[in-house]
Amino acid sequence: MRKTTIWQTTRKALTVTALATMVTGGALLSAGTASAATTLANACSGTVNGGMGDTVAITGTSVKELVRAGAREAGTLALYDVAANDIAKVNRIDLGTVPNAAGGSIEGKAIGAAVRQAVKDTKSWGLGLNPEKTLNSIEHKVAGSCGLTTVATNYVAPTLPTPGTTAPQQGGNGGGTNGLPCSPSLLPGGSNGTGYAPPRDYGNLPVAQPGVAVAPGVRYPANSPLPGEGAPQYGTDGQAGQGPDVRNAGNAEALATDGMPGGDVQLPMLLAVLVLAGVTAALVRTWVLRRVS
After folding, report:
1. pLDDT at site 175
2. What is the tens place of the pLDDT at every residue in 226-268?
3. Could you give the maximum distance between any two Cα atoms of the chain, in Å?
4. Cα torsion for 35, 41, 42, 46, to the nearest 10°?
5. Burial class for 247, CB neighbours closer than 10 Å (0-12, 13-18, 19+)
6. To which H or E segment does residue 55 belong?
7. Contact yes or no for 149/47 (Cβ under 8 A)
8. What is the DSSP letter of 181?
9. Residue 184: which of 195, 176, 165, 173 has the closest Cα?
10. Predicted TM-score (pTM) above 0.85
11. What is the pLDDT of residue 30?
12. At CA 50, angle to CA 47 and CA 51, rounded to 5?
């Protein structure tokens, strides 16, 4: 009787455990299916919209002609029509995911590698005598012709703090005002670490006060001398107001001559000049005659 009770208790425990496992597994499968999303693009170039983290994929039909051209250019006697038809049967070629940003890109190099692997997985018999060379040619062709730009439709830009406000502090017990530490600020002007200095006080700077214009008649009356007029006169003795006793500083006298009237040219000088002119003319004439002969 006791053995029967133990067996019944164990069977009930196993049944409950199995049911719990089934429920938990089903929940996990449902959650995985709900969170997984795929954005299927109709072409290997252009722009594709999707949520952040979504898988970006293309169909085999979108690269059918590129596979055909790559296989034909490989030079391996590939049956390019067969290879193109085989890749067209592939419904999905995964390329990457939408980044956690406003936008991103999937380069042609990544698309070419994905298409190469997809063609290889088809085990197409139309790849020619050298399948690896044909696959390399297909990859190169696709990489040079494809490229996608991803746009995250659920991206939310972060909000920036309004100028003049203090950014919220994370953790710490600084004890200062608005959660700021009590240590003195290193910012100029004592901005308390907010990044904004207070307006400067220019009240102590000297400023010219606006005055009232004075008429020339008030500034210089009619009966008073103008500035610079009526200056005192000084003589040689340094006394002012001496009048006619003013003299020139110093006396200049003509030097005595040798008794000859000034400005007259003497006869010997004239004779010397004439003789010099005659000698010069004779020398020039002799030199000219020698040059001619």
Report:
1. 46
2. 555 555 555 545 454 455 555 555 565 655 555 555 555 578 8
3. 180
4. 160
5. exposed
6. strand 55-58
7. yes
8. B
9. 176
10. no
11. 33
12. 145
